[in-house]
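Protocol step 4 of 5: obtain the predicted structure for the target chain.
Materials: sequence only (see below). No template structures provided, no constraints applied. The aim of this step is simply to have a reference model before the mutagenesis design in step 5. Sequence pasted as it appears in the construct record:
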Amino acid sequence: MNSAFSYTTQYSLDKAHFSECFDESVTIDSSWRAYTKAIGFFFVGIALLITVMNTYASFFVIGLGVLEWANVKFKKTWWLWRQMMSKAAGNEVTLTLDELGVSSQSFYVKSQILWSDVSEIVNTDRGFLIKHPGGTSYVSKQVLNETALTFINSKVL
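Step 4 output (structure tokens):
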């Protein structure tokens, strides 16, 4: 008789985990198109400054351009800083894989992704991107054993 599969593990939401999540799930656009909003803010601010409409508003818009440039240029650093400053950073997460789906529970968050809701599972070098109606979730292979890896791979459609 085949028994139902269930796997539970714990891991910490530390900088290494967040960095892996970012590296595996975000595609960084380093072309000039990524900077178009920053360039637009900057030139609108310069135009306002030249017309002497409102000096404070002009510098504010220029500052937005600089801030947007920094957001694009230092995207990973910016994102990691925000994650490390969140209340979830440093907490333990309990991850459970079973026949129903993937569930995670920490002090602040309790979530469950049902296999029936999963639209796609992308196998990356270091984990799995699980796409569902609520967005995309990342599960690191580092916290899974061989049986759990085989189980998730069997769910890939």
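Step 4 remarks: Residues 32-84 form one domain. The longest strand covers residues 6-12.
Proceed to step 5.
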